């Protein structure tokens, strides 16, 4: 019995919530252009609790591939995707990167988390691949851990928090007292620190208040909610803000478990960075009242490319594209622009092209990737999502504000 | 007062959910000697089936409760089918191999959920009536916490009644005590196993259903609760149902108060207790029983 119990304890301690599944290769748009197709490797999380990020990203990329192929491909060559599931595990990411490289697929994108990007970059430098971060946002990739084999088409954390601060300056300039409810890990804490720094710069004052941090694996937030609400000033709904340093299931659980307490009504404004519209599709009437600052909202742009993207996405998936779909989509277009500038798919030629700056068209307008640190000047959008029982979805977006990167783009800070 | 009442109610409600998840584990081990890691998958199916049966719509309170019970029954049927088709072949394996085999089943269950319900989480809206609150000593408490408390107590008493006050319970205890002798006396042991497995899985399914309005269901729900549930079973004593109940309440309350008063400790306190119990009292705080125990 003792041996059994000890073994059981060991198994529990070692267990990780994982469901190992690997996405198979896809072959969309295999065409008949001149020469071999250009194969792009999509390494993204398409299983586990964050599977929606990678699934949307790959779906967006497929639309881009289809559109590019319909217009003659890149340098006359058709484009093809090879999809690998990184399972949100850096070791699996590296394995996928090496495996694709061994098959001659050296141009990759996706990478759900910064841990995935940080693990992949040194390997890409060693084996001669390119890692294009479609989703990962931590700063080191484009500062002290910069490597020319890395390119980021997503915004980075400084941009997200700079944009949040810019949004607060524009819309809620009198709110100086902010509380945080976030995931207790490095990115959650970094986001809060950066938000404080940027908002203090934008407003001239910032008073940090209550901080509640929950484990990434926690699902029962009721006691955390209790702690957050205890002794909250009675007038908090008039003059305090709530910063959510979390995403995905965490925001869902907070919305559902906080509803009996009218949690989100205790603050004048609550802000978050994530693809909130996907969450609202799940939560429907339980959707909290939030301002979300992120890469994309499909109705925010009136460009022909956005219309084409949204229409194609709706046709293919019977759904609107999320910010994650957009992130996958623009990564493929960024590769197209870089390959055409380099005149080749050779990795060194592409790095030289990125080093001198690459600009590509996107649904939100032209985006430039900075030569010095390979960081895209991503355009961000703030949009207000609110529950609305009168709509079939149970929620709606009431307004949005497009934020221009010159207001929050951090200076180059590469430490080579 | 708020600093005591709210964590206490939250902790007790959480403890009841843990009990529902863990009691089936304890029951199955107590009767059949199976350490069933796949139990987490049944908890997850309970949550998903509640969502599916409710059509993802907000229902009146009584309808939601009926749907949760129905989801529990359906989950129990699934459980009984897997007992007959799969688990029955494991009874000859040693406990370590059983543990690994059931872990594999847990993965299969999670993968199945992904295939059936997709990668995007699903959310069962709470009933409007359960959004309301009530006051204890001037402190506002969500009424759903009371529902969880009542459900936990109801099922604990119901389980005790079933096992100690019915002929079926007497038969189960006889099989748990000595399955060979029970078989020799003409008891259909396989049938008893299947029915008891169904009862354990019913509790897990109801637990998942009760949890569904509080979280978004995703395939990882299978893993979230199983680890806590096993920890509770170890702390309470494997196969010891009153111990499981006591440990569930203890763990729920401890976690809830730590979140309020020592948040740095809350994330891993459960595992510290589990390791301490394994090292210093490996039979659990209330004593392990290889055969079913009601104290």
Jot down its keywords.
heterodimer; A: 416 residues; alpha/beta; Rossmann fold; 7-stranded mixed β-sheet; 5-stranded parallel β-sheet; 13 helices; B: 295 residues; mainly alpha; ABC transporter involved in vitamin B12 uptake, BtuC; two-stranded antiparallel sheet
Number of strands of chain A: 14
Please give the largest β-sheet of chain A. 7 strands, mixed
Task: Kindly provide the radius of gyration of chain A, computed on alpha-carbon positions and rounded to a whole number of angstroms.
Answer: 22 Å
Strand coverage percent of chain B: under 5%
- Helix tally of chain B equals 13
The SS-based structural class of chain B is mainly alpha
Report the principal-axis shape of chain B. Answer: globular
Mean pLDDT of chain A: 88
Question: Would you state the CATH class of the largest domain in chain A?
Answer: Alpha Beta
Task: Average the pLDDT over all residues of chain B and give the rounded result.
Answer: 88
CATH topology of chain B: ABC transporter involved in vitamin B12 uptake, BtuC
Secondary-structure-derived class of chain A: alpha/beta
Q: So, CATH architecture of chain B?
A: Orthogonal Bundle
Q: Can you tell me about this structure?
A:
Helix content of chain A is about 40%, strand content about 20%. Chain A has about 425 residues and is α/β, with parallel strands linked by helices. Chain A has two domains: about 15-155 and about 300-370, 3-Layer(aba) Sandwich (Rossmann fold); about 160-295 and about 380-405, Rossmann fold (3-Layer(aba) Sandwich), CATH 3.40.50. In chain A, the strands form three sheets. Chain A has a seven-stranded mixed beta sheet, sandwiched between helices. In chain A, strands 2-1-3-4-5 form a five-stranded parallel beta sheet, with helices on both faces. In chain A, α2 crosses α11 (about 305-315), α5 (about 155-170) packs across α6 (about 185-205) and α12 (about 325-340) crosses α13 (about 345-355). Chain A is globular, with a radius of gyration of 22 Å. Residues about 15-35 of chain A have low confidence and may be disordered. Chain B has a single domain (about 1-280), classed as ABC transporter involved in vitamin B12 uptake, BtuC, CATH 1.10.3470. Chain B is built from 13 helices and four strands. Chain B has helices at about 1-30, 40-55, 60-85, 95-115, 130, 145-165, 165-175, 180-185, 190-210, 220-235, 240-260, 265, 270-280, and strands spanning about 120-125, 135, 140, 215. Chain B has a two-stranded antiparallel sheet. The longest helix of chain B is centred in the first third of the chain and has 31 residues, at about 1-30. The mean pLDDT of chain B is about 90. The interface between A and B is large, with 53 and 67 residues.
């Amino acid at each position: 019995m003792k041996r059994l119990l000890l073994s059981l304890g060991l198994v529990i301690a070692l267990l990780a919530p994982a469901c190992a599944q690997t996405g198979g290769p896809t072959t969309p748009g295999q065409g008949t252009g001149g020469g071999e197709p250009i194969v792009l490797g999509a390494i993204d999380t398409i299983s586990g609790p964050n599977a929606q990020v990678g699934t949307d990203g790959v779906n967006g990329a497929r639309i881009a591939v289809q559109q590019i192929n319909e217009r003659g491909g890149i340098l006359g060559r058709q484009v093809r995707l090879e999809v690998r599931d990184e399972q949100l595990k850096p070791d699996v990411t590296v394995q996928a990167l090496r495996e694709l490289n061994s098959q001659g697929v050296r141009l990759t994108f996706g990478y759900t988390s910064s841990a995935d990007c940080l693990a992949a970059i040194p390997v890409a430098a060693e084996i001669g691949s390119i890692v294009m971060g479609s989703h990962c946002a931590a700063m080191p990739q484009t500062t002290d851990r910069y490597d020319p084999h890395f390119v980021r088409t997503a915004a980075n954390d400084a941009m997200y928090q700079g944009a949040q601060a810019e949004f607060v300056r524009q819309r809620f300039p009198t709110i100086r007292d902010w509380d945080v409810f976030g995931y207790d890990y490095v990115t959650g804490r970094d986001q809060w620190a950066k938000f404080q720094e940027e908002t203090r710069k934008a407003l001239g004052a910032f008073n940090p208040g209550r901080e509640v941090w929950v484990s990434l694996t926690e699902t029962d937030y009721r006691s955390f909610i209790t702690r957050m609400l205890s002794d909250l000033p009675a007038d908090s709904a008039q003059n305090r803000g709530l910063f959510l340093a979390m995403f995905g299931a965490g925001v869902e659980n907070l919305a559902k478990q906080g509803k009996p307490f009218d949690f989100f009504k205790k603050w004048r404004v609550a802000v978050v960075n994530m693809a909130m519209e996907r969450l609202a599709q799940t939560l429907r009437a339980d959707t909290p009242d939030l301002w979300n600052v992120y890469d994309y909202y499909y109705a925010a742009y009136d460009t022909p490319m956005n219309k084409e993207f949204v229409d194609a996405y709706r046709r293919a998936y019977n759904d609107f594209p999320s910010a994650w779909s957009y992130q996958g989509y623009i990564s493929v277009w960024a590769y197209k622009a870089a390959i055409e500038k380099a005149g080749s798919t050779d990795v060194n030629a592409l790095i030289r092209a990125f080093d001198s700056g690459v600009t590509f068209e996107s649904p939100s307008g032209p985006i430039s990737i900075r030569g010095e640190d390979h960081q895209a000047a991503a355009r961000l959008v703030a949009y207000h999502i609110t529950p609305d029982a009168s709509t079939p979805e149970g929620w709606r977006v009431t307004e949005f504000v497009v934020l221009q990167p010159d207001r929050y783009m951090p200076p180059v800070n590469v430490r080579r | 007062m708020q600093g005591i009442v709210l964590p206490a109610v939250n902790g007790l409600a959480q403890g009841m959910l843990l009990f529902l998840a863990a009691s089936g584990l304890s029951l199955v081990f107590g009767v059949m000697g199976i350490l069933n890691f796949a139990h987490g998958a049944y908890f997850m199916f309970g949550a998903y089936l509640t969502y599916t049966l409710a059509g993802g719509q907000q229902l009146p309170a009584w309808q939601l409760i009926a749907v949760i019970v129905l989801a529990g029954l359906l989950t129990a049927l699934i459980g009984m089918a897997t007992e007959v088709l799969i688990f029955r072949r494991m009874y000859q394996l040693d406990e370590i191999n059983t543990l690994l085999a059931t872990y594999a089943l847990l993965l299969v269950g999670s993968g199945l959920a992904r295939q059936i319900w997709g990668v995007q989480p699903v959310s069962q809206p709470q009933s409007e009536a359960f959004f309301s609150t009530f006051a204890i000593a001037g402190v506002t408490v969500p009424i759903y916490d009371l529902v969880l408390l009542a459900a936990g107590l109801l099922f604990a008493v119901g389980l005790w009644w079933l096992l100690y006050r019915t002929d079926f319970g007497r038969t189960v205890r006889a099989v748990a005590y000595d399955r060979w002798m029970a078989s020799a006396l003409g008891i259909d042991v396989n049938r008893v196993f299947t029915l008891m497995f169904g009862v354990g899985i019913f509790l897990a399914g109801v637990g998942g259903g009760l949890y569904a309005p509080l979280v978004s269901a995703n395939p990882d729900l299978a893993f979230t609760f199983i680890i806590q549930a096993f920890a509770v079973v170890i702390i309470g004593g494997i196969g010891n149902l009153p111990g499981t109940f006591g440990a569930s309440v203890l763990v729920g309350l401890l976690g809830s108060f730590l979140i309020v008063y020592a948040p740095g400790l809350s994330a891993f306190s459960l595992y510290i207790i589990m390791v301490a119990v394994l090292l210093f009292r490996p039979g659990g705080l209330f004593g392990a029983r290889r055969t079913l125990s009601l104290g």
